[in-house]
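lol so apparently i was supposed to do this last week
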Amino acid sequence: MEKLEMLYEGKAKKVYKTDDPNYYWIEYKDDATAFNGEKKGTIVDKGIVNNKMSALLFKMLEEKGVPTHFESLVNDREQIVKAVKILPLEVIVRNVAAGSLAKRLGLEEGTPMKKTVLEFCYKNDELGDPMVNDDHIFAMDFATELQLETIKHYAYKVNELLKAFFIKRGLKLIDFKLEFGVYEGKVILADEISPDTCRLWDAETNKKMDKDRFRRDLGDVEAVYQEVLGRIQG
Ligand code: TMP
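anyway here it is w/ thymidine-5'-phosphate bound
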């Protein structure tokens, strides 16, 4: 496959066309942002960790029955994915209170949830990705009822699969964000799964092993990204 012109540059990735209209070429960057782009920095080799980790996790999920956009790795920083049309939703799955949920509801970070919590945000940087509910989603045509039902089904399934996968590697899956796209008329999992998009705490010590180390200036950022990749590669 051939890499053609860049279609889009996001905060963490560049998306290129390929000579096959069914596929995109993704390049993972080391750029890190937080708080809707207000805080900017670099996490050295983050692009490598996130590219490899996403590839490994999407492959595992695909094998367990979750359709994903992942096709193949090109090199350390690049992969080929199906040319999905991304739905403008961030799907957040929470097992334990942390981050914006802990703040919004006045909960101590680390409080377990009695039920897995799903949240939806409208992907729009200018608006700061506002939270939306099912009615907003249908009223604004962000997704159809059938698409949202499929998204919820896959989101819960991905949560069960990832929780089991991570705990075997000494990591607790606190919460994470997914994005979905439409490909050949079907909803499939897209974007990435990485320490940028998950909260992972060490199972023994509760040490934060994710992008919160960058967001909150906790130090050890690069080492922790490498440690997570090392653990999941076994
Ligand atoms: P939050 O607690 O800040 O709402 O984040 C919930 C989860 O979603 C957390 O695992 C980090 C992830 N996330 C993203 O991947 N992208 C984002 O832009 C935000 C705000 C959170």
